[in-house]
Write a structure and sequence with these properties.
Order of helices and strands: EEEEHHHHEHEEHHE
Strand order of the largest sheet: 2-5-8-7
Shape: globular
Structural class: alpha+beta
Oligomer: single chain
Strand content: 15-25%
Number of domains: 1
Length: 208
């Protein structure tokens, strides 16, 4: 069965999402639930390998194309070819130990980045992430990083720290705005380029 996706993304594994947070000692889980969304230091370790001149020459053009994919100001970099994503994940052992390959799917991203692509790989869909494009995941930032647990009264997270559906999230967004006014979370910009999107995130099983 073919699935339509926007592209492939290399992200940190859930246990490592706060490895780079300075000045905080944060547990990556809440009552045993880890955040599995898109905002997991995506591509950061690939970028660090580039600046250390550790990207294989065969991947340098693909890396340049990856940078171009962010020029649309969505803040979401993707590659369109599965074998390229696997090659990035396989640069070295540490990369594969701390990162994983996921897919992202969004009708809005497809409108911005071009048509969705069909992938024959087996995908386990993890859920929907609430994301400010060109910004951050509201779920990761407010709940897992800042521990604003009142938001859990407005949505129900699944076992992957995401949403099984995106209906009835108005109360979540309203509560988030109030917390922003109180400087307890980063406030949403009044004139964002693209605003909020709901990104479906999946994990590729049996990565080659």
């Amino acid at each position: 069965m073919l699935f339509m996706i926007t592209g492939y993304v290399i992200v940190r594994k859930p246990a490592h999402i706060f490895d780079d947070v300075v000045g905080k000692s944060l547990s990556p889980s809440i009552e045993g639930i880890y955040y599995h969304g898109i905002d997991r230091s995506n591509w950061r370790d690939v970028e660090s390998r580039f600046y250390q001149s550790k990207i294989p020459e065969s991947l340098l053009k693909t890396y340049a194309d990856l940078d171009v994919s962010e020029l649309d100001f969505t803040g979401i970099k993707v590659v369109k070819a599965y074998h390229d994503a696997v090659a990035f994940l396989s640069i070295d052992k540490e990369m594969a130990l701390t990162n994983e390959l996921v897919v992202v799917a969004s009708d809005r991203l497809n409108q911005i980045k071009g048509p969705g692509i069909a992938t024959p790989q087996h995908i386990t869909w993890l859920g929907y992430d609430i994301v400010l494009l060109r910004g951050w995941s509201l779920i990761r930032h407010a709940i897992f990083e800042n521990r604003e647990m009142s938001l859990l009264e407005t949505i129900k997270l699944n076992s992957f720290g995401l949403l099984d559906h995106v209906e009835n999230v108005d109360d979540f967004l309203e509560t988030y705005d109030k917390l922003g006014d109180l400087d307890r979370v980063d406030p949403l910009p009044e004139n964002g380029v693209y605003g909020i999107d709901y990104l479906r995130v999946g994990r590729i099983m049996d990565v080659l």
